[in-house]
């Protein structure tokens, strides 16, 4: 039986296309990528301004896939722009290449992790779930609050409640944690995500100090952050991984926080651009500038609210404005989420909302700490698929 199946499948293996996974190279432009892959450059030049700009936000190390036929023809390329949108290049029956921006089809699972400390929270979470992102999130959440090295003992339990995205049965992208608790010497340390997206302790006090300020005075937001938006007139998917501030040409642009300049220069899409790396691991980006503060160079140290440049309309821009981006590593995040004011406690309606969130999470914490059922690690599936051109749905390959 086994042998028969093998014989029947053999021709498929011999003549089938195969998938080559690859990672997006740091600093590679879309044009260089097309050139290197011997694909028509018109794929880039036929894009509109917004799509061209979007290609400059492809995160380095993004997990891409190339489907190649046995005759070495590239049949499909998938390049994720973020965790919701991807660029699909495909070879049509008319023997030409086309390109579109399509959604990444994924499922969100609500998950609970219960585990006990055997070495350190990071290692134990990684061992139980296989997710470095989840482990790192936990450590970041409790940093400055619990001294893991000093206080923690083997057997101390921890619980995390989170949403995890799956693509073809495999976790991808950052998990969204709604709450976590760790119990040390019988004392509980819990954190709850409020509806503003920030974590608070039992009392509703936020201890993660927010570091960043608006990079422009008297700011007026003209366009918000979105990882995926469908344009009803153009019938296309769009992403805008930053915030636009409308302002007159020449308006001073200020550093959002203390840091070191990691880029001063020009790109086709973003025009005159500055990037600043901050000690927290964030990188801020200021685009379409008219000019830079004289003397500013890679390696310059800047303090919060230092003048760094001037609002302009360079690059692919429809008028003077500041495009302001914020990244954790290569991943764009909503800048507004790290510019919220520090809250000392909630009052009124806001307090009631927080109490409701807290008691819902506490019920889950209680149950998990009581039942102590260790999480079983999920199956790993191959990260390989072909996207159906019409439904956008992945097909196992
Ligand atoms: Zn923008």
How do the helices and strands line up, and which of them pair or pack?
Blueprint: H1 2-15, E1 18-23, H2 30-36, H3 42-45, H4 49-55, E2 63-68, E3 74-80, E4 85-91, E5 97-103, E6 107-116, H5 121-129, H6 132-142, H7 148-151, E7 157-167, E8 170-184, E9 187-193, E10 199-200, E11 221-223, E12 226-231, E13 236-240, E14 243-246, E15 252-254, E16 259-267, E17 271-277, E18 282-289, E19 291-292, E20 301-302, E21 307-310, E22 321-328, E23 331-333, H8 348-371, E24 385-387, E25 394-396
Antiparallel strand pairs: 1-2, 2-3, 3-4, 4-5, 6-7, 7-8, 8-9, 9-10, 11-14, 12-13, 14-22, 15-21, 16-17, 16-20, 17-18, 18-22, 19-21, 22-23, 24-25
Helix pairs in contact: 5-6
Bound molecules: zinc ion (ZN).
Structure overview:
- By secondary structure, this protein is of the alpha+beta class.
- It has three domains: 15-104, Roll (Nuclear Transport Factor 2, Chain: A), CATH 3.10.450; 107-210 and 342-371, Nuclear Transport Factor 2, Chain: A (Roll); 221-338, Glucose Permease (Domain IIA).
- Helices cover 20% and strands 37% of the residues.
- It has helices at residues 2-15, 30-36, 42-45, 49-55, 121-129, 132-142, 148-151, 348-371, and strands spanning 18-23, 63-68, 74-80, 85-91, 97-103, 107-116, 157-167, 170-184, 187-193, 199-200, 221-223, 226-231, 236-240, 243-246, 252-254, 259-267, 271-277, 282-289, 291-292, 301-302, 307-310, 321-328, 331-333, 385-387, 394-396.
- The strands form six sheets. Strands 11, 14, 16, 17, 18, 20, 22 and 23 form an eight-stranded antiparallel β-sheet that branches.
- A hairpin with a 5-residue loop joins strand 9 (187-193) and strand 10.
- Zinc ion is lined by residues 223, 240, 242, 244, 323.
């Amino acid at each position: 039986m086994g042998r028969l199946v093998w014989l029947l499948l053999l021709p498929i293996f011999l003549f089938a296309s195969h998938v080559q996974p690859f990672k997006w190279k740091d600093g590679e432009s879309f044009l260089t990528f097309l050139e290197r892959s011997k694909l028509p450059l018109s794929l880039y030049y036929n894009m509109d301004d917004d799509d061209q700009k979007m290609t400059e936000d492809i995160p380095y190390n993004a997990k891409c896939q190339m489907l190649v036929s046995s005759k070495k023809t590239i049949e499909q390329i998938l390049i994720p722009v973020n965790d919701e949108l991807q660029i699909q290049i495909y070879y049509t029956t008319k023997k030409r290449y086309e390109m579109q921006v399509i959604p990444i089809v994924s499922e969100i699972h609500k998950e609970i992790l219960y585990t006990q400390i055997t070495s350190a929270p990071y290692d134990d979470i990684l061992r139980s779930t296989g997710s470095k992102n989840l482990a790192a999130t936990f450590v970041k959440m409790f940093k400055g609050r619990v001294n893991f090295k000093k206080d923690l003992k083997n057997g101390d339990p921890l619980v995390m409640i989170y949403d995890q995205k799956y693509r073809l049965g495999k976790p991808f992208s950052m998990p969204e944690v709604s709450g976590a608790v760790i119990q040390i010497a019988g004392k509980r340390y819990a954190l709850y995500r409020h509806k503003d997206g920030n974590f608070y302790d039992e009392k509703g006090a936020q201890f993660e100090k927010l570091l960043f300020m608006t990079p422009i005075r008297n700011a007026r937001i003209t366009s918000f952050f979105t990882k995926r938006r469908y344009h009803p007139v153009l019938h296309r998917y769009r992403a805008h991984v930053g915030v636009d501030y409308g302002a007159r040409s020449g308006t001073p642009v200020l550093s959002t926080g203390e840091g070191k300049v990691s880029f001063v220069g020009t790109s086709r899409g973003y025009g005159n651009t500055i990037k600043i790396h901050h000690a927290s691991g964030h990188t801020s980006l200021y685009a379409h500038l008219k000019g830079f503060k004289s003397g500013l160079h890679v390696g310059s140290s800047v303090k919060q609210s230092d003048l760094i440049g001037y609002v302009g309309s360079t690059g692919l821009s429809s008028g003077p404005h500041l495009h302001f981006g914020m990244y954790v590593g290569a991943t764009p995040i909503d800048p507004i989420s790290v510019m919220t004011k520090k809250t000392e406690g909630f009052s009124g309606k806001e307090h009631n909302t927080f109490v409701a969130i807290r008691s819902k999470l506490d019920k889950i914490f209680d149950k998990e700490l009581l039942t102590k059922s260790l999480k079983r690690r999920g199956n790993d599936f191959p990260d390989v698929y072909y996207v159906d051109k019409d439904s956008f749905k992945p097909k196992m390959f």
